[in-house]
Amino acid sequence: MCNQFFSILANFSFFFCELCSRILQRLVNTENFILYPCVHSYFVIFRYREKVKGMFYHAYNGYLNYAFPLDELKPITCTGQDTWGSFSLSLVDALDTLIVMGNTTEFRRAVDVVLKSVRTDANVNVSVFETNIRIIGGLISAHMLSGRVEDGWPCSGPLLRLAASMASRLLPAFNTDTGMPYGTVNLKYGVPKSETPITCTAGIGTFIVEFGTLSRLTGNPQFERVALRALETLWRTRSSISLVGNHINVQTGQWKATDTGIGAGVDSYFEYLVKGALLFQRPDLMKQFNEYASAINRYVRRGDWFLWVSMDKGAVSLPIFQSLEAFWPGLLTMVGDVEDASRIMLQYSQVIRQYGFPPEFYNIQNSASDKRSAFPLRPEIVESLMYLYRATEDPQFLELGAQIVDAIEHSAKTSCGYATINNVEDHSIEDRMESFFLAETTKYLYLLFDPENFLHNDGLLARIIDTPNGECVIDGTGGYIFNTEAHPVDPGIVHCCSAQRQAEREAVRKWEDNYDLLSILDRTDNMSPFYFRKVCFSPLKIRTNFPFKISPPSINFAQKIASELFPSTENGLIHWIMRIMVKSKNVTYLTTAKVLCSLFFFCKRRYKRLVYDDR
């Protein structure tokens, strides 16, 4: 009843706002006036959130009714087809979207179906890249979001075991002289004898998120090891101007296609350098990305367009924009370059306003490519819109998202799903709905219009859970990181199960048991700044003022403690002290105030407020 009331109210609000905007548009006499000036209001956000939810369930139910257990729905004929290995792919890809939209009941039912139907030992050739990002990524994310389904979670669970089993079937692809993987593997027999050694760059550099997470959760280092080796080899093959091509021989390390850009065949390699750096605290990967980004801005970029150029000389080879490139503003937003990201997105928005959708290829002379004018309901443009709106709260990004939702509803909807747009100029359709429509496009659109969704957690909320290795902080470690198929990974859970973290936890326990920090903090009124700085720990020097013997580590031990407890927060030490106070039964609000004020004054660092939820 409440939902019906708010839906009616939202519809009324939307039409009232649109009426006002049309009147204002006439008054100011300009075509540049934003059509939806109220689009950022609660009611319009609610309206589009519900619209996207309805879009997802129309496609999801259509797949279950007409295509399952095949991989994908054919939405015009309302039949199904296998495309990537006969894994019931669309169901696996959609699991975490169900949780994002709050449907835990259907999620549990769908998980049971997946566990009974997905096999990892079938005699079938599969794409190593696609199986990793869609199947393994989907299973890992669903495992994390499922909660405690058995003792030992999050370090064990049926979905995690299935993901690890599937990943182990992909490992033979990495048995090359360079460590870069083949593009195809047979799940039962390994790499086919006739398999070509030529693989695209993204198919080599897009494993660290999933394989690194598997290693941290299962304790098997092999997954992360092969992913890192592939990244290291790719890095060594860059050209003298710090660009990489788009296809390489994985046995010899020789480039076979030297055109480069930020789109097809290359895109997610750059994405995973950033996300691998953030997820596993590897500054070397971020350094690599920064060098690539500098070269891209110098050689690939023309204004706010990114073209295709030679990796050796930087000469333009193809003056087009690809819809796959639309992930770039979102990635720039992740690394903090929001102003540049916004400018690039506004350039891309011209294409959306021209056609309703971005075509696969767009000639920068303002026309869609005759041969690549389709739009297979790709997510990249709405992915960047989500990141940019989260960073800026600029309503024009909501407006663009609303236009895309309306265009999909108008042109792509069929009786049982949503069809690929065959040509953006006449909006003709073809009989395919790829699984990423359920995994990515609808998820990113929903998150764009759901600012309070739990996936937007930026570290202000957290939960402490018990694991086989002791306490672990989850949900509040600075936000989820999405793999390139929009499957969210909780950085806190990633660090719950590793042996290294277990050793550091033991050191933390010893310190908590032997160091009476609260009694010292009660003396802060008379404490000298120098003495208090010993408690704060200088970030530039190693200070080991502990009552027990410990070998000085290679980096600041206090920082390691902070990163263990709150890996993605800026000032983990404050949160660690808050954790001690939560555990203590004799802490007063005055003591809490002393802690925060003293740390702020003497350490001169910014801090965030952490709210503990002991659910």
UniProtKB/TrEMBL annotation:
<comment type="function">
    <text>Involved in the endoplasmic reticulum-associated degradation (ERAD) pathway that targets misfolded glycoproteins for degradation in an N-glycan-dependent manner. May initiate ERAD by promoting the first mannose trimming step of ERAD substrates, from Man9GlcNAc2 to Man8GlcNAc2. Seems to recognize and bind to exposed hydrophobic regions in target proteins.</text>
</comment>
<feature type="active site" description="Proton donor">
    <location>
        <position position="360"/>
    </location>
</feature>
<feature type="binding site">
    <location>
        <position position="484"/>
    </location>
    <ligand>
        <name>Ca(2+)</name>
    </ligand>
</feature>
<keyword id="KW-0256">Endoplasmic reticulum</keyword>
<dbReference type="GO" id="GO:0005509">
    <property type="term" value="F:calcium ion binding"/>
</dbReference>
<keyword id="KW-0732">Signal</keyword>
<feature type="active site" description="Proton donor">
    <location>
        <position position="130"/>
    </location>
</feature>
<keyword id="KW-0326">Glycosidase</keyword>
<feature type="active site">
    <location>
        <position position="267"/>
    </location>
</feature>
<protein>
    <recommendedName>
        <fullName>alpha-1,2-Mannosidase</fullName>
        <ecNumber>3.2.1.-</ecNumber>
    </recommendedName>
</protein>
<comment type="similarity">
    <text>Belongs to the glycosyl hydrolase 47 family.</text>
</comment>
<dbReference type="InterPro" id="IPR044674">
    <property type="entry name" value="EDEM1/2/3"/>
</dbReference>
<dbReference type="InterPro" id="IPR036026">
    <property type="entry name" value="Seven-hairpin_glycosidases"/>
</dbReference>
<dbReference type="GO" id="GO:0016020">
    <property type="term" value="C:membrane"/>
</dbReference>
<dbReference type="GO" id="GO:0004571">
    <property type="term" value="F:mannosyl-oligosaccharide 1,2-alpha-mannosidase activity"/>
</dbReference>
<dbReference type="GO" id="GO:0005975">
    <property type="term" value="P:carbohydrate metabolic process"/>
</dbReference>
<dbReference type="GO" id="GO:0044322">
    <property type="term" value="C:endoplasmic reticulum quality control compartment"/>
</dbReference>
<dbReference type="InterPro" id="IPR012341">
    <property type="entry name" value="6hp_glycosidase-like_sf"/>
</dbReference>
<keyword id="KW-0325">Glycoprotein</keyword>
<dbReference type="InterPro" id="IPR001382">
    <property type="entry name" value="Glyco_hydro_47"/>
</dbReference>
<keyword id="KW-0378">Hydrolase</keyword>
<keyword id="KW-0106">Calcium</keyword>
<dbReference type="GO" id="GO:1904154">
    <property type="term" value="P:positive regulation of retrograde protein transport, ER to cytosol"/>
</dbReference>
<feature type="signal peptide">
    <location>
        <begin position="1"/>
        <end position="21"/>
    </location>
</feature>
<dbReference type="Pfam" id="PF01532">
    <property type="entry name" value="Glyco_hydro_47"/>
</dbReference>
<dbReference type="GO" id="GO:1904380">
    <property type="term" value="P:endoplasmic reticulum mannose trimming"/>
</dbReference>
<feature type="active site">
    <location>
        <position position="380"/>
    </location>
</feature>
<keyword id="KW-0479">Metal-binding</keyword>
